[in-house]
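ARCHIVE CARD
Drawer: 12
Card no.: 0347
Subject: one protein chain, sequence and derived structure
Cross-reference: see card 0346
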Amino acid sequence: MDFFQKLGNTLSNTGKDIAKKTKDMSDISRLNHEITKQQEAIAKTYSQIGKFYFENYSELDYPELKELCNSIKEANQKIEGFKSEIIQIKGIINCPNCNAEVSSTAAFCGSCGYKLKDETVDTPNESTDSSKE
């Protein structure tokens, strides 16, 4: 009987240890998640401070920050270039009236109806073909 009692106590204690370790791991995981959330909030705030500075004070002469501001400006120019390339690949243009994306072959904007092309534009070789006849 003593053997079974010791075995029962051992199993009971082991179960309690496992439950405590599981709870501890759960608590640690929850706390690590909270730490990550706070770190993300700090990074977002730093980003907002930097954006505010860039938008309002980037033209001021702070040599320590001038290079960083210039790199942002260069990156924004590259982004605009990439967007232009995407538009060319897609075969679209922006409507000059409402800025909607429209097929480059469209005569009218599908959003606002703005006339995009003159109907009197001659296609190449059309006038030269008629003069040969």
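Annotation on reverse: The radius of gyration is 34 Å. The chain has three helices and two strands.
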